[in-house]
Amino acid sequence: MKKIVFLITLWISIIDVYSQNSIKDLEYIDASASFTSYYAKIGSIKKVGNKTYKVWIYSYPQYGHEDECRNSMVNEHNNEKYSNFTHSVSLYNVDCNNEKIGTSKIIDYATNGEILFSSEYYTTIYSDVVPDTIGESIYEYVCKYVMENKVK
């Protein structure tokens, strides 16, 4: 019985990731210790400067940890609206030449599509890429992608 439950759970999580990837054209990057999975929007990497690129990153609570993530968001934002949080979409800027990363836009969404939070930064503040973080995973993904695909 435990094997059947395990296989069903595994199958559902594979379907969940596959549907997110195929429906929204997302490519998995990494997961954080806070039970959040990060995906890059395929085709969204654009050059904005000398070896500097922008990319849309989607973050979703990992399957089975949605309530933990929502509770964390409610506490972090001190706002009960986040009990309906589904995902975030962020515009990252990656400087492949200087190992820097910054965020220029963040949008948090609810289950009904409502925007819970939106912020745009007119000047991106870059910081050093910190080892063993999601920022490092995004940096590595973007810089590898632009080298392999010769993004101009």
Key traits:
eight-stranded antiparallel β-sheet, 34% helix, alpha+beta, 37% strand, 152 residues, 3 helices
Provide a descriptive summary of the structure in words.
- This protein has three helices and eight strands, in the order αββββαββββα.
- The longest helix has 23 residues, at 2-24.
- Strands 1, 2, 3, 4, 5, 6, 7 and 8 form an eight-stranded antiparallel beta sheet that branches.
- The radius of gyration is 17 Å and the shape is globular.
- The chain is α+β, with helices and mostly antiparallel strands and 152 residues long.
SSE order, as H and E?
HEEEEHEEEEH
Can you tell me the overall shape? globular
SSE-based structural type = alpha+beta
Low-confidence stretches: 5-23
Overall number of strands = 8
Rounded radius of gyration (Å) = 17 Å
How is the topology of this model organized?
Layout: H1 2-24, E1 26-31, E2 36-41, E3 46-49, E4 52-61, H2 66-77, E5 85-95, E6 100-110, E7 115-120, E8 127-128, H3 134-149
Antiparallel strand pairs: 1-2, 2-4, 3-4, 4-5, 5-6, 6-7, 6-8
Write a short abstract of this structure:
This protein has 3 helices and 8 strands. It has 152 residues and is of the alpha+beta class.
